[in-house]
């Protein structure tokens, strides 16, 4: 139980129950079932590897903890030829009761423009899948951190997961990969210098894993550098974001669902919001080329073979039926010839769309102090959505995908962001 002169002084064990809040897609590197298959255990259970968890958690802590010495000690660090062993062991998260489904996507070029004939599909784990995250820490008597430091770091990790700051897998900036940690968790502490400690008690724990139960305290968001817009919306009619099926007696296509609940994928919101933002900036506000290029960079566009993480995160929206007449409606329609708008003979098809529901739209901007002018631009876009001037999804020509909502553009923060947008445009024109 020792390494050289250092002796183990503490072992701390945590076991958290977690569930998927949004769809999750951890790539396996294969494309057998789809273009982007998820990672599965030998008995076909989806999971997140401990290495993926460690990478996402460490990246978050390196950007939110001021004392990096503790983080380097806990996660280990290589300095030249010297290596410092990690003090943390992170388990895989294996999900139980999970449902795997397939979603469609469209490939984009370096300018985020759709590529012709480049559709792809990918597997996801649907929301509400349950798994367990285990963390084990080993501290030595030469380590300048205590069990209380470990507790604080662990709660910081949980807070980051619960507030969506730590996400996992594919399309993290587009609504996927969000987990939540349940409020009750399991904990075990061993102090090797404690007179009550016995090797037998430790061996018994390893064999039987009998933890103590604890409750999470109230955890506030760690990062106040981000700003999240929230917009309550009601449908004005139906919405149709298609998923196709060849099952007999089923519609030819239906509005997309997750766990049988109708949703608006974050990628659909992002496409509509992004297009309108650039349209306003270029055509209504006559922004200069440098400002347009800067917005592309903030949205994750840098040009060919250059990549940067988008500073705008969009969340997936769940549609809830209204108290009166909201829900799915199945209907049969004529196929239309796109060249002359005439009906195609003997070409009926059926669809199932969702009507008269309500939902919430959440958009987060990172580094809000530097990106206030972008927030001002999003105020204009969100106002268009709330006023029914910007539709999302398909069949918008027949009134689908239109919403209405209460959006207070006179909010003091919104006015501040609109002023920042004005100053940005004014500064660009003065140059």
Briefly, what is this?
With 431 residues, the chain is of the alpha+beta class. The protein has helices spanning 50-64, 68-75, 147-162, 199-208, 266-284, 289-298, 372-386, 412-430; strands spanning 2-3, 6-20, 47-48, 77-79, 82-84, 88-90, 93-94, 100-108, 114-125, 130-140, 179-191, 212-215, 227-235, 238-239, 242-244, 253-255, 257-258, 261-264, 312-314, 317-318, 320-321, 327-336, 343-355, 357-365, 403-405. It contains eight helices and 25 strands.
Question: Care to describe what's here?
Answer:
- This protein is an alpha+beta fold and 431 residues long.
- Helices cover 26% and strands 33% of the residues.
- It has eight helices and 25 strands.
- The strands form seven sheets. Strands 1, 2, 6, 10, 11 and 12 form a six-stranded antiparallel sheet that branches. Strands 13, 19, 21, 24 and 25 form a five-stranded antiparallel sheet that branches. Strands 14, 15, 16, 22 and 23 form a five-stranded mixed sheet that branches.
- A hairpin with a 2-residue loop joins strand 17 (257-258) and strand 18 (261-264).
- The N and C termini lie far apart (67 Å).
- The mean pLDDT is 85.
Class by SSE composition: alpha+beta
Number of helices: 8
Q: Termini distance?
A: 67 Å
Radius of gyration (Å): 25 Å
| Largest sheet entry | 6 strands, antiparallel
- The beta-strand count equals 25
User: Judging from the principal axes of the Cα atoms, what is the shape?
Assistant: globular
Helical fraction: 25-40%
Q: Strand share of the residues? A: 25-35%
């Amino acid at each position: 139980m020792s390494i050289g002169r250092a002796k183990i002084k503490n072992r701390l064990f945590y076991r958290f129950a977690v569930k998927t809040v949004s769809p999750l897609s951890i790539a396996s590197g294969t494309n057998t079932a789809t273009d982007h298959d998820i990672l599965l255990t030998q008995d076909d259970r989806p999971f997140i590897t401990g290495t993926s968890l460690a990478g996402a958690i460490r990246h978050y802590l390196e950007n939110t903890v001021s004392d990096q010495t503790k983080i380097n000690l806990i996660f280990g660090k290589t300095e030249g030829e010297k290596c410092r062993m990690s003090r943390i062991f992170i388990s895989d998260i294996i999900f139980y009761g999970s449902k795997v489904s397939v979603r469609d996507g469209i490939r984009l070029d370096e300018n985020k423009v759709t590529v012709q004939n480049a559709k792809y599909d990918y597997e996801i784990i649907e929301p509400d899948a349950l798994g367990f995250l285990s963390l084990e820490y080993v501290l030595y008597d030469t380590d300048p951190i205590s069990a209380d430091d470990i507790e604080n770091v662990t709660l910081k990790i949980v807070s980051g997961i619960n507030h969506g700051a730590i996400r996992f897998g594919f399309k993290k900036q587009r609504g996927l990969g969000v987990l939540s940690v349940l409020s009750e968790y399991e904990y075990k502490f061993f102090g090797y210098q404690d007179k009550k400690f016995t090797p037998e008690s430790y061996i018994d724990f390893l064999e039987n894993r009998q933890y103590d139960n604890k409750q999470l305290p109230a955890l506030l968001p760690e990062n106040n550098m981000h700003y999240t817009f929230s917009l309550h919306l009601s449908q004005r009619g139906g919405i149709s974001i298609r998923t196709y099926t060849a099952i007999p007696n089923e519609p030819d296509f239906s509005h997309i669902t997750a766990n049988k609940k109708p949703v608006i994928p974050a990628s659909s919101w992002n496409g509509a919001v992004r297009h309108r933002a650039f349209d306003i900036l270029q055509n209504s506000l006559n922004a200069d080329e440098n400002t347009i290029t800067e917005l592309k960079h903030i949205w994750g566009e840098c040009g060919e073979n250059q990549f940067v993480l988008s500073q705008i995160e969009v969340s997936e929206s769940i549609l809830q039926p209204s108290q009166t007449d909201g829900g799915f409606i199945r209907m049969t329609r004529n196929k239309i010839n796109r060249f002359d708008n005439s009906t195609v003979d003997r070409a009926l098809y059926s669809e199932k769309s969702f009507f008269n529901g309500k939902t919430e739209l959440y958009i987060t901007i990172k580094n809000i102090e530097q990106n206030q002018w972008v927030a001002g631009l999003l105020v204009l876009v969100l106002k268009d959505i709330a006023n029914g001037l910007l539709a999302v999804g398909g069949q918008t020509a027949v009134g689908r995908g239109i919403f209405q909502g209460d959006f207070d553009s006179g909010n003091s923060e919104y006015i501040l962001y609109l002023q920042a947008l004005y100053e940005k445009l004014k500064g660009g024109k003065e140059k």
